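hey so u asked for the seq, here:
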Amino acid sequence: MREDLEQQEQMQNLKAFWKANGKWITSILSLVFIIVASVNGWKLWNNYKKEKASNILNSVEKQIEAQNLDVALRLYTEISGDYSDTLQSGLAGLLVAKALVSDGQSDQAASILKGLTGNSQVKWLAIIRLSSIFLDLNRPGEVVKIIPENIPEHWVGIILDRRGDAFATMGNFDSAKKDWSKALDYYNQNGGNQDVTRFISRKLATIEASLNELEVKKD
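ran it, structure tokens below
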């Protein structure tokens, strides 16, 4: 009898608690369900986007191998429009730009690479390759413009080496010397390729000779 009364009392307490708090409990559970569903939906959508972008990237590679550059360009337009900041879109752009340079279309390659400087996945690779194109086109001022002041540590060597080349081409030997010196320091401190360090050292020696020559002429 006592157990029955205790059970009835517990049921009454539970009913009273649910009556007083049922609405906000239901609201919280509904909110949790919405959050979980949203997270799962976002993951599914992200996976779908990655898969779709990867398929387009594979198609770009195949079309370039088959020398169908026009088709590869159309595919790149699609992937860069629908999946602009993905790694797949960035890699597709780098492949197409490389193919365009090989085809003698450096200006169009430069245009694609300039767009890729806004893709966080391949930004610095795009800047390096774009710098090389601008140097080949004898547009060193463009190289200086596209290189930001803040450079991630692991890109310092090659980026400053490129900018040093641009400054030297422009006749700004002091700035070239400064950038090449920093690039050389970076490679020496981080075990850089010896061929690279020797090449930068030779460029620094050449610039030193030029600066000394200018000093002699001033005197």
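The two ends are 117 Å apart (CA to CA). The chain is about 85% helix and 0% strand.
lmk if thats what u needed
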